[in-house]
Amino acid sequence: MNSKIIFSQAGIYRLQQLASLIYRHTGDRYRLSSIDGQLQLLKAAVTSPHPDVRTCCIHLADELHPQQLRVLATNGITLTSSSVLADKAG
């Protein structure tokens, strides 16, 4: 079940940056107006091999509250600085 996440203005800015970076690298577009689109974008972003996308993920993680990170985790998205960097190494 998807729980709605309310992003701050800074979080929305980071989501838009991620969407732009992912589009530039892959040509894929994600609907940021829906939770499913946001989750699909984040799943693509955390598995991206591109350093600029990973850096943006880290900045987004820094903007989120622990509750928001837990909601993402329940949807299969681990978005923390250490997880993004560890996934890069793996």
β-sheet strand percentage:
under 5%
Question: Helical element count?
Answer: 5
Q: Which regions contain 5 or more consecutive residues with pLDDT less than 50? A: none
Helix amount, in percent?
Answer: 55-70%
The number of distinct structural domains comes to 1
Element string (H = helix, E = strand): HHHHH
Features:
90 residues; mainly alpha; globular
Question: What is the compact description of this entry?
Answer:
The protein has 90 residues and is an all-alpha fold.
How would you describe what is shown here?
68% of the residues lie in helices and 0% in strands. The protein has helices at residues 9-26, 35-46, 51-63, 66-74, 81-89. The protein is globular, with a radius of gyration of 12 Å. The model has no long low-confidence stretch (mean pLDDT 88).
What's the structural blueprint in terms of helices and strands?
Layout: H1 9-26, H2 35-46, H3 51-63, H4 66-74, H5 81-89
Helix pairs in contact: 1-2, 1-3, 3-5
